[in-house]
Amino acid sequence: MVQVALIQPQIPPNTGNIARTCAATETPLHLVGPLGFELSDRYLKRAGLDYWPHVDLHCHDSIAAFVQQCPAKQEQRWVGFSTKGTQNYIDFDFRATDILLFGRETSGLPQASLDHCTDLVYIPMSQAHVRSLNLSVSVAIALFEARRQLGQLKSDRLKATEK
Question: CA 65, 15, 11 angle in degrees (round to 5)?
């Protein structure tokens, strides 16, 4: 199952929105500190609504702790999303065992996490004056493309109509 890792996120509503997306798609979410907020932050909770009990949440104090607890293995790639990426995410072949890494809203993935990425991809943008997309938008784009490639969107529709 694809997983999402936020490396040192700073803006609570972004993380809350991402947690909500992860809850909706049953995607494990890793928060790697230091975080720019407390997990009790009201804006974080508000953005995640009442979906927090449905989030498969894993918290790591640092990049080093994350590396130790979730080492990249031969069958598991760490796919970093960055404006410095070398491959368009649309052209990338996602695997069910991938961990999708996203960095801080203000500065992207720190070098310590880039060093552990097996692949570095980017989301193309037409407007040269726009440096990046909102973090929660980027995560949603990447996660749903991975799920599309893995054939995981078709069954979700059936699940929703069966309830």
Answer: 95
